[in-house]
Write a structure and sequence with these properties.
globular
Length: 208
């Protein structure tokens, strides 16, 4: 027979599996329906990574990383079924999967570190959400930059983003995306994730 510790561990594992399934389902729904992309005059913001951050903060790095894995695999599927000029880069798991797993891992540890030093839980969650979002943006674009520099430069030139494939031009274009889309998505992540996580903690009757 299972002892109390064994039963508790079993319940915890079931809960984590449910959270992974539920938040992964939300991520896939947002991607398949297009609701995960918020159009702005100059660019689109994505919120597909938010379930990864939420799962990481409430259940830990394994859950967050697992949701990130599913997000990354979905990214490969999405780029195969609806290709764009950037899609070939995302066939590589180093671009599409690894950064998404790291969203969950880094978000959790940033939250734990900040929470141990700051009493205000809203600050802890917000900083973790911002860091998780930036991991997504910088991780994906940074890997493309490092692994596919020449091909990335060609795509940017074809789109009219840059006029030369020099390192300075490509780097400037990359930093511009991070400074616009990346920062905007990070702020949006904090605004959305913080109240959701606090509400979940209250339902779980955690001390906040």
């Amino acid at each position: 027979m299972l002892n109390a510790r064994g039963v508790g561990k079993s319940h915890e594992n079931v809960r984590k599996m449910v959270v992974i399934s539920m938040l992964s389902g939300i991520c896939l729904f947002l991607g398949l329906t297009g609701l995960g992309f918020i159009p702005l005059p100059l660019f689109k913001l994505t919120i597909l990574h938010l379930p990864v951050i939420i799962g990481a903060i409430i259940e830990g790095p394994v859950v967050g990383g697992s949701i990130g894995l599913i997000f990354g695999l979905f990214s490969i599927y999405q780029n195969i079924t609806a290709p764009t000029p950037m899609s070939p880069f995302f066939y590589n798991p180093l671009v599409s999967v690894l950064p998404r797993i790291l969203i969950g891992v880094i978000s959790y540890y940033v939250y734990k570190i900040i929470r141990s030093k700051v009493k205000n839980i809203k600050v802890s969650i917000s900083v973790a959400a911002i860091c998780g979002s930036l991991v997504n943006t910088i991780g994906v674009l940074g890997t493309i930059y490092l692994v596919y520099f020449k091909d990335y430069a060609t795509v940017l030139m074809e789109r009219g983003t840059i006029s030369t494939n020099s390192m300075s031009a490509v780097t400037t274009a990359l930093l511009t995306v991070i400074g616009t889309n990346g920062i905007a998505e990070a702020i949006l992540s904090a605004l959305v994730v913080t109240p959701i996580v606090i509400a979940i903690f209250k339902m779980q009757k955690k001390n906040i």
